[in-house]
TrEMBL record:
Pfam families in the record: Jacalin
UniProt KW Signal keyword: yes
GO molecular function per UniProt: carbohydrate binding
Protein name: Zymogen granule protein 16 homolog B isoform X2
Gene source species: Trichechus manatus latirostris
Keyword annotations of the record: Lectin, Signal
SUPFAM superfamilies in alphabetical order: Mannose-binding lectins
Gene name tied to this protein: ZG16B
GO CC annotation: extracellular space
InterPro entries xrefs: Jacalin-like_lectin_dom, Jacalin-like_lectin_dom_sf, PolyBind_ProtTraffic
Positions of the Jacalin-type lectin domain: 1-132
UniProt keyword annotation of Signal present: yes
Length: 148
């Protein structure tokens, strides 16, 4: 888990036949990440985390995937930079605190979900789930490992 964690657990992911098509983060005035939502197909998941914050979303192009994540955290998540296989970059929050870099264990894997924990003030930790896009892997090659 990236961050210290603690609080209520949450999880959001694309199904085995679906792909993430967008991601939305809400950030509070103190720069703390309040919540996260995934867009799968044309539908948004429930909002996971604390209420409030200014929400920003990143909509992926068709056949575009998130392939790595840079971020920072203190007591709560502070910043994320998402990198795609189409060369696009999306930045959320403000870069301060301890840094991390997350990417899949195997070439060709992409972001397929997030889980983590949140407290009253915001997201206290995140885990990134990586897997092959639908139709590009067998059940035997599926993975949820993150590497720092």
């Amino acid at each position: 888990m990236y961050g210290y964690g603690g609080g209520k657990y949450f999880s959001a992911s694309a199904g085995s036949e679906d792909e993430i098509t967008g991601i939305r983060f809400c950030v509070g005035p103190a720069g703390l990440f309040k919540s996260v939502q995934l867009r799968v197909g044309s539908s948004w998941s429930e909002r996971h985390g604390a209420p409030g914050g200014n929400c920003q979303e990143f909509i992926l192009w068709p056949d575009e995937h998130i392939v790595s994540v840079y971020g920072t955290y203190g007591l709560f998540l502070r910043s994320l930079v998402l990198y795609t296989d189409q060369g696009r970059v999306a930045t959320f929050g403000s870069d301060s605190g301890q840094s991390f870099f997350a990417y899949p264990e195997e070439d060709g894997q992409v972001l397929t979900g997030v889980s983590g924990q949140h407290k009253l003030l915001g997201i206290s930790g995140l885990i990134f789930k990586w897997n092959f896009p639908p139709g590009e892997a067998t059940a035997a090659s599926r993975s949820t490992t993150t590497i720092t």
